[in-house]
Amino acid sequence: QAPSSAREDLQRKLDWLESTDQQNKVYYQQERSSSSLENNWHDRDWAEESLSDYLLSQILLSDSSDDEFSILEFMILSLDERRYYPDDLTVAADRFQTAPEHIERLLAVIQSLDPAGIGARTLQECLLLQLRRTRQEHPLMEALIQNYLPEIAKNHLPEIARELNC
Q1: What's the DSSP call for residue 83?
Q2: Confidence (pTM)
C-alpha cells in the first residue's frame, strides 16, 4: 500500500503542476494581450505627450524653482517607453552642472507623482514605489519584491514559501 500511496501523492503533485502550468499560460496570454494594447497606446504621440503634460502639470503645482523645473522637465522627457528613468543620474547632473544628490532628490519628486511607479529605474523599484503608495506596506511583500522577483517569475512559489517560512 505504501507504493500505491506514493504514486497517488506523485499523481496529485503532477496534476497540481499541470493546473498551475495551465493557469500561467492563461495569465501569460492575458499579459500579452494587455501588453500589445499598451504598446499601441504608447506608440501614439498624443498619449506620450499627454502623460508628459500630466506629469509636468503636477510639477507646476509644486514649489520647485525655475532651475529645478528645467531639470524635472528634462528628466520627465527622458523617461523611456516603460516610464522608467533610464539614465545614470550623472547625465542630468553634468548637463545642469549640479550634484548627483540633487538629481536624486528631484528623481524622488518625479517618483512621488501619479501614476505610482513613474520614474523608477527598475521593476523592483517600480513595484516598491507602488506598494508604498498604497500605504499598506507589508514586510513579506517588500521581502518578495526585494529578494525573490526572479524566483516568482519562474513560479518557484513553494521554495520561496519554504525559505520565508510562510
Answers
A1: S
A2: 0.66
